[in-house]
Amino acid sequence: MADLNELSEKLSGIRQEIKDELLKIENSKHAFEYRKSIMDSKTGKIGSLMREMGKVPNEMKAEYGKKVNEIRTWAQEQFDELETKLKEAEMNLRYESEKIDVTMPAKMQKRGNLHPNTMVRNQLVDIFGSMGFEIYEGKEIETDYYNFTALNIPQDHPARDMQDTFYLSPEFLLRTQTSSGQVHVMEEQEPPIKIISPGKVFRSDDDATHSPMFSQMEGLVVDKGITLCDLQGLLNAFVERIFGESTKTRFRPSYFPFTEPSVEVDVSCFQCKGCGCKLCKGTGWIEVLGAGVVNKKVLDGCGIDSNVYSGIAFGIGIDRIAMLKYGINNIKLLFESDLRVLDQIDD
Ligand code: PHE
After folding, report:
1. Ligand 1 center to 3 CA (angstroms)
2. Does 329 reside within a domain?
3. Is 283 in the same domain as 312?
4. Which pLDDT score, from 0 to 100, does residue 336 have?
5. What's the pLDDT at 347?
6. Residue 204 lies in a domain
7. N or C: which end of the chain has fewer CB within 10 A?
8. Whole domain around residue 194: which residue ranges?
């Protein structure tokens, strides 16, 4: 190093170069890299100045060191300032781009809804539950005795043909009706009995209105002095709640081996209010369930004295109610889980 003037000139050259360069820098990463290159102790324009101390004559060393320190401090300040400014700007930009308006209404997510069968079952349970019925969970695999014999359908009885049965063995079968639960309840409980028993039943039957697996809900009331009038009152209250207040019931004579008398219950069409439409096939009435007064033979067979007690029973097709209520014309649609169908049904 010849003299200090030369050093001063060199340093002001470096200062200018840094000033010019800093003006071009647009982001903090770039600024950081530039700082590193300038301050590098081997190759950096400022960083390497100290290494040259050795070549500086002794009498100039103090002054040289001072000037080098000065420019180093100056450069560091410049970099600090620029980096802080750029980082702040970058942060603001990020805040802006990631800004969330918490007052904006949320994007509605599609939610699932309950299956029509589940909705109807829940409604039935609510309605009968509010009338004081308890729920009895029956068994899907039954013995021939509970599904048929105890219900006054002995072997070779023609009524067995009404329900094509899936036998698992000569003794066990998939229950064809929730009525099998009636027998268990009457065997296990003393009257007064007031139960409903919803569940799956199985029959070898398959067309637009029949499926090999479907759901029923059994109802059973056993007490002293229970009559067909109680059944009518009960079912009137039920249909008004499930189909609407103006809905009426109509009893038609029918036959079930385990009830005597037996009835088929129709409701006045809740769509056309009885005037006649497609749903009720122009008749104004829709068949919804089978019912009757519990056959004395069944009561006695279960150990309930039919001279003291009497009972009423009814069996509601849950799928059938769901189809009627939601305008579903093919029972298969209830089992296909097709969202185009299920999306339209929400209570
Ligand atoms: N179990 C009968 C059926 O499945 C319905 C029914 C239940 C009838 C209770 C009368 C009494 O068809």
Report:
1. 117
2. yes
3. yes
4. 86
5. 65
6. yes
7. C
8. 116-342
For ligand 1, pick from 179, 220, 262 the residue to mutate: most ligand atoms within 8 Å of CB.
179
Residues with CB under 6 A from ligand 1: 177, 179, 256, 259, 290-292, 313-315
pLDDT of amino acid 129: 97
The protein residue whose alpha carbon is closest to atom 12 in ligand 1 is 290
Whole-number Å distance, alpha carbon 179 to ligand 1 midpoint, is 6
Ligand 1: residue whose CA is nearest its atom 6: 315
Closest CA to 314 of 237, 217, 219, 192: 219
CA of 320 to the centre of ligand 1 (A): 14
Query: How confident is the model at residue 150, as a pLDDT?
Result: 96
**How many angstroms does the Cα of residue 260 sit away from the middle of ligand 1?**
12
* Total of domains in the chain: 2
Q: Are residues 187 and 303 in the same domain?
A: yes
Which pLDDT belongs to residue 335?
A: 86
Low-confidence ranges of the chain (pLDDT < 70): 1-2, 162, 347
How many of the other CB atoms lie within 10 Å of CB of 163? 17
Whether residue 142 is found in the same domain as residue 62: no
Nearest atom in ligand 1 to the alpha carbon of residue 201 is 4
Question: If you measure from the C-alpha of residue 171 to the centroid of ligand 1, how many angstroms do you get, rounded to a whole number?
Answer: 22
In contact, 166 and 199? CB cutoff 8 Å = no
Side-chain-facing half-sphere of 238: CA atoms under 13 Å: 29
For residues 284 and 137, state if they share a domain. yes
Q: How far, in whole angstroms, is CA 151 from its chain's centroid?
A: 39
Q: Which residue has the tokens 């089992």?
A: 335
Ligand 1 center from residue 329 Cα (angstroms): 23
Q: Is residue 77 domain-shared with residue 139, that is, in the same domain?
A: no
pLDDT value of position 25: 92
pTM above 0.85, yes or no: no
Number of H helices, E strands in the chain: 10, 9
